[in-house]
Amino acid sequence: MRAFFDMGGYAAFVWPAYAVTLTVIVLNIVWARRSLARSRAEARRRLQTQGQRP
């Protein structure tokens, strides 16, 4: 098990690369969800505004 985590001496490069990749993926998901929520709120607001016009 130790050999796996040591990655043949390249652990100092491999594990931070995994961490950066995971961070970018998580941030991408968070930003996409926020953007979707903002877009939905904007669409609702526009639909309500259109519905109130005579």
Which short descriptors sum up this protein?
single chain; 54 residues; mainly alpha; rod-shaped
Detail the topology: elements first, then pairings:
Layout: H1 2-6, H2 11-51
Uncertain regions spanning at least 5 consecutive residues: none
Largest sheet: none
Approximate helicity band: over 70%
Bin the strand percentage.
under 5%
Q: Radius of gyration, rounded? A: 22 Å
H/I helix tally: 2
**Overall mean confidence score, pLDDT:** 93
Distance between the termini: 72 Å
Instruction: Kindly state the number of beta strands.
Output: 0
> What is the 3D shape?
rod-shaped
Number of domains: 1
What does this protein structure show overall?
With 54 residues, the protein is mainly alpha-helical. The protein has one domain. The chain is 85% helix and 0% strand. The protein is built from 2 helices and no strands. The termini are far apart. The mean pLDDT is 93.
Brief synopsis:
The chain has helices spanning 2-6, 11-51. It has 54 residues and is an all-alpha fold.
